[in-house]
Amino acid sequence: GQNIDQPTEMTATEGAIVQINCTYQTSGFNGLFWYQQHAGEAPTFLSYNVLDGLEEKGRFSSFLSRSKGYSYLLLKELQMKDSASYLCAVIEDSNYQLIWGAGTKLIIKP
Amino acid sequence: DAGVTQSPTHLIKTRGQHVTLRCSPISGHKSVSWYQQVLGQGPQFIFQYYEKEERGRGNFPDRFSARQFPNYSSELNVNALLLGDSALYLCASSGRTANTEAFFGQGTRLTVV
Q1: CA atoms within 13 A on the CB side of B56
Q2: Mean pLDDT in residue range B71-84
Q3: Which residues from chain A sit within 8 angstroms of residue B42, using beta carbons?
């Protein structure tokens, strides 16, 4: 079956670093996405990983380990505007549909 | 360039009615996917269309149907609406069927009363 797990909620302090984990169990794997979604808005793309390792993009980095079915999103120098839900999504081999986690609500405190 | 556009942005319908949601992808994108997102949950895949053909279908009842037009715009139709169909319906466009970033529209907020 398909299963993507993320923590429901995390809290961090402005200026700090936070790591949001995602574990997945899918019948196939053709890449993993991270999206940011502010309340009431559509998701916006953050990163895509298909090979093992770390992808860095400004304050955001994403890591993938295919053998462990594990990814994390690392956010540095947190800003208040980073308060949002962060969604992990996997492309299976079949159908090319995105399988989504429930999202992690990140709360940033001053 | 215009992003993905969806219409309407908000909609209120009565149980048993039907609804048609519309999506225009980014210019040049040939793939459109539809997702349902219930409050507090991640999106759930409904359909994917590429070059006007259905390429994938999620675990939704036959009350849900969709199509893609020659200009790559798409419609999602839901018949015999239930209260549980109340959700944010998201449309995403991408250049190919897989492995490319999906760009989302602002969504249609459907409320069934």
Answers
A1: 23
A2: 97
A3: 4, 87, 89, 100-103
Closest residue in B to A37 (Cα) is: B42
| Short-list B74, B112, B64, B66, CA closest to B94 | B74
- Number of helical H runs and strand E runs in chain A: 0, 11
Inter-chain contacts counted by CB atoms under 8 A, chains A and B: 63
B103 touches chain A (CB under 8 A): yes
Determine the Cα–Cα distance for residues A88 and A74; give it in Å rounded to an integer: 13
pLDDT-derived band at B55, boundaries 50, 70, 90: confident
Q: How far is A75 from chain B (nearest CA, A)?
A: 20
Whole-number average pLDDT of chain B: 91
Q: How confident is the model at residue A96 (pLDDT cuts 50, 70, 90)?
A: low
Chain A residue closest in CA terms to B33: A97
DSSP single-letter state for residue A67: T
Contact assessment for residue B38 and residue B104, using Cβ atoms and an 8 Å cutoff: no
Q: Please give the torsion angle defined by the CA atoms of residues A91, A92, A96 and A98, in that order, rounded to the nearest 10 degrees.
A: -40
